[in-house]
Structures are given as C-alpha cells and as structure tokens.
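[agent] plan:
  1. take the single chain provided in the ticket
  2. run structure prediction with default settings
  3. attach structure tokens to the ticket
  4. add a short note for the reviewer (M.T.)
[agent] executing step 1
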Amino acid sequence: MNKTILLAGIIGFAAALAVSAAEPKETWANSCARCHGADGKGDTNMGHRLNAKDYSDAAVQAALTDDAAFKAIKEGFKDKDGKTVMRPAQNLSDDEIKGLVAYLRTFKK
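[agent] step 2 finished; step 3 output follows
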C-alpha cells in the first residue's frame, strides 16, 4: 500500500513538472506567436507591421534584460511616440510571466 501511494506521488509530481515545463511554450503559442512568431523571429504579418524584434538574434537578446521583458509582458509596451504596440498580458501570474521570459531566452541562436 505504501509503495502504491509513493509511486502515485512520484507520478503526480513528474506530471506536474511536465505540465509546468510545457505551459510557457503553450502560452507563447496562444498569446505571443501571432506577432513574435513561433520561433521568436517576429517574421509574421503582424510582427512586420509592429516592427517586432528578432529574439533569435543574440544581440537583441543581450540588449533585453529579464526585468525589461517581464515589464513589457506585464504592463504592455509603447513605442517612442507613446502608441501601444503590445498590450499587457491578461490573466498571467508573475511566475507565468517569468516562465515566458525564460522561454523567450530559448530562441537565442
């Protein structure tokens, strides 16, 4: 009986880790890829219109701090003229936003 409970606990923990690892990728696909592309290159119609940066570029990644990326996702982003080019993320916790920032870092080549 104890082995069954332990095994169930281990399987549940492993499943939770797998879900949490997949969440940023899924969130990116559902919320970010329309403009930034599935690969972070910004090579989409909307990305071209909004001048989205290529997050696969190491120089672009180096110029972007985690704090700035977090703030842009949480609060939205305006261009130099004050026009909103990215709305704030809706219904994402700080941990989910941190996961998105970490996922964004995987695009660097």
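[agent] step 4 note for reviewer: The beta strands are 77-78, 84-86.
[agent] ticket updated
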